[in-house]
Amino acid sequence: MNKLLNKVKQIKWHIWLRDLGILGAIFVAISVWQSRDMLDIDSHLLLKDQLLVSMDGQTNTILKADKPTLIYFFAPWCKICSLSIGNLEYLDTNKLNIVRIALDYTNVEEVQDFADKHNISSQILLGHKGIKQQFKIQGYPTYYILDQQQKVLAKSYGYSTALGLKLRQVFSG
C-alpha cells in the first residue's frame, strides 16, 4: 500500500512540474511576442547628447556613464504602469541607474498627480514623440536596460514584478 501511495505522489509531482513547465513556456512565448517590435538586444543607441526636462524644470541626460541604466517608459493614464512603477523601488541603485520617463501625457500636472498618487520621489523626465519613436515604444510600461556604451542589454514590455526586474538587473549587469 505504501508503494502505491508513493507512486501516486510521484505521478502527481511529475504532473505538477509538467504543468509548471508549460505555464513557463507560455509566459516566455508571450514575452517574446510582446517585445518583437522593440529595439533589438545588443543594438546601440545615440543618446549622449539627448536631454530631457524633468518635472522640476531641470535639463538631464538619459544615461549616466558610471553604470547600466534601466529606462522605464510609462504613461500616467496606464493602469499597468500604476501597478508596476513601485516595483522599481526594489532595485539596487548602487548597481543600476533608474530613469523614469513619462510619455503620452496631456500636461505636467497629470504626470505630477501620477507621481503623487504613487509616492514617487525620484526624478521623472518628460518625454516626447521623438524619444518614443527612437525607443520604438508601442505600449506601456516599456523597460530597457542599457550599458554605459548605450547598448541594449535587456528589454521588456508590460507588467514586471520586482523579482522579474531584479533578475533582469542580475543578468544584464
TrEMBL record:
Keyword line: Membrane, Transmembrane, Transmembrane helix
Record organism: Paraglaciecola arctica BSs20135
GO molecular function ontology, one term from the record: oxidoreductase activity
TM segment ranges: 15-33
SUPFAM superfamilies: Thioredoxin-like (SSF52833)
The protein's name in its UniProt record: Thioredoxin domain-containing protein
Sequence ranges assigned to domain Thioredoxin in this UniProt record: 41-173
Alphabetized InterPro entries for the sequence: AhpC/TSA, Thioredoxin-like_sf, Thioredoxin_domain, Thioredoxin_ResA/DsbE_sf
Superkingdom: Bacteria
